[in-house]
Structure formats: structure tokens, C-alpha cells
Amino acid sequence: MSATRYRRFLKLCEEWPRDEYKKGRDLGTFLRQRVAATFREGENTQISDPEKCDQMYESLARINGNVYRERFPRVRDTSFTGVTVEECRLLLSGSMQQMQQMDEAKKGLWKTLMERFSSKSPDEAPEKTPEK
């Protein structure tokens, strides 16, 4: 029975899409790594809790098959903030993180430290206390 579970998970991994925008960070990659770690011995792997394994497979198969997306369709393709799907994709992509890291590198050391350790922005002038 373990061989059947292993083959089912392998088929699910093959069908699961990869997100090219999030290389190494997408759910498909994580799923493949977990299946490889769980089934180290391939078809000969002994599953300690077969019922839980079957439930996990069924849940992942429903997500991959868009069961909930079809059952609960969205009225609009935006969130409450008004951000579109493409804008979210761009924000979550690795290229956006690389741009932020480059911006950090361009800042001077002093300005970066001031931003991290100060509650005010570094552009604001410090308030002077009146002397008595």
C-alpha cells in the first residue's frame, strides 16, 4: 500500500505547477522537497500514520484541482486594497526583493543605521528642547 501512496504523491508533484517568479520559494518546490524527505526509501518507505498521509494527499489534490476556487468563485480579481493579481505577483517575485536589496546597498551606512535604530525617519530634524 505504501507503493501506491508514493506513486500518488509523485504524480501530484508532477502536476503541481511551478511559479517561475518565486524560484526556490514556491509551494511546488516545497512540496517536492517534503515528498522526497518523507519517502526516502521510495516505494519501500513505511508510513507511520497512513490515515494522516492519505488525508494530506487528498487535501493537496483538492488544492491542486482548484476545488475551492470553483466552489467559492471570486467576484473581482483584486483584494480589499485594490492591488491586482499582476501587481501582487510583481511584489512577491524575487526581482522585487533584489531591487530592495540594491536600494539598501546604495544607501550610506550611517543613513541605514539611523533608519534601523531611530523611531523617526532620518529626514526629520531632531526636536530641540527649550532651555530654562
Give a short summary of the structure.
Its main location: mitochondrion. This protein has 132 residues and is mainly α. It has helices at residues 2-15, 27-38, 50-64, 67-71, 85-92, 94-106, 109-117.
Give an overview of the whole structure.
This protein is mainly α. It folds into two domains: 1-73, no CATH class; 79-120, no CATH class. Helices cover 58% and strands 0% of the residues. The protein has helices spanning 2-15, 27-38, 50-64, 67-71, 85-92, 94-106, 109-117. Helix 1 packs antiparallel against helix 2 and helix 1 runs parallel beside helix 3 (50-64). It is extended and about 60 Å long. The model has no long low-confidence stretch (mean pLDDT 78).
Number of strands: 0
Strand content: under 5%
Number of DSSP helical runs: 7
What structural class results from the helix and strand content? mainly alpha
Order of helices and strands: HHHHHHH
Q: What is the helix fraction of residues, given as a range?
A: 55-70%
Mean pLDDT: 78
Sheet with the most strands, sense and barrel status: none
Taking pLDDT < 50 over at least 5 consecutive residues as the criterion, the unreliable ranges are none
State the separation between the terminal residues, measured CA to CA.
85 Å
Number of structurally distinct domains: 2
CA-based gyration radius: 24 Å
Q: Report the principal-axis shape.
A: extended
Protein name: Mitochondrial nucleoid factor 1
Subcellular location: Mitochondrion matrix, Mitochondrion nucleoid
Keywords: Mitochondrion, Mitochondrion nucleoid, Transit peptide
GO cellular component, one term: mitochondrial nucleoid
